[in-house]
Design a protein that fits this description.
Elements lengths: L10 E7 L5 E7 L9 E6 L7 H5 L12 H11 L4 E5 L3 E3 L3 E3 L5 E2 L5 E2 L6 H25 L17 E7 L3 H17 L7 H6 E7 L14 H10 L2 E5 L1
Helix pairs in contact: 4-6
Amino acid sequence: MLKAESLSCPLRVVQVKGFEGRANDVIYCHPLDKEPHSSAVIYFGGDVQDYPENMDHHRDNKNYMKWNLENMALLLQSKFPYSHIVVIKPSRMEFKAFSCFDNFVRCNNCGAPVHIPTHQALQHLEQLLQTLTNRIKDAAQPLREGSCNNSFFPNGFSLDKAELQLIGFSKGCVVLNQFLYEFHYLKTLTPEDESMTSIVSRITDMYWLDGGHAGGKNTWITSRSLLETLTRLGEEVHFYC
């Protein structure tokens, strides 16, 4: 349960429920500008990136403390001041170092992906945003009713209706790669299924930042059919290595 007095940034929201019982911790930051906004930045981080207290107690990871997930949320807030920031924590950190996004893509013990046509990653993201929206709204209600004017959480606040910019860094890029498989599955293999049309149409940008993992293949998706499907969606695609 979130408490109204804790609604400062970054806001840690634990065990946010998504598709069929899957859950992820989420770190949220509101837009710096108080005007109503309908866009959200979704970030999937790399190996080592964790809560600051976990990194601080790890012999090696503490050397990278400045890149902890809460600091990343604040950094993204400064870079995207007009957007809601949603940092999605991996469902597990194997050996306290390897980010494993099992809820979005099948992974081995080190988080290397095993891509399949659909792992319901898009469904999980959509339901995760719906649940996160409701939990933030519930926590913000006392602020709206009290003397504090909390315009960052207006009545119309709804992450699951926002335009989405997806960012993957290092290991986090495996989630974006899985989305490519699912775009193709939805648009080409099951075109009659329109259940995910809404969330796919709201993805405006995808950023691959120094993507990599230890799996030996599929670091970058080169399948012609998958990339052709991506181009037909009309999203802005950004690669940085």
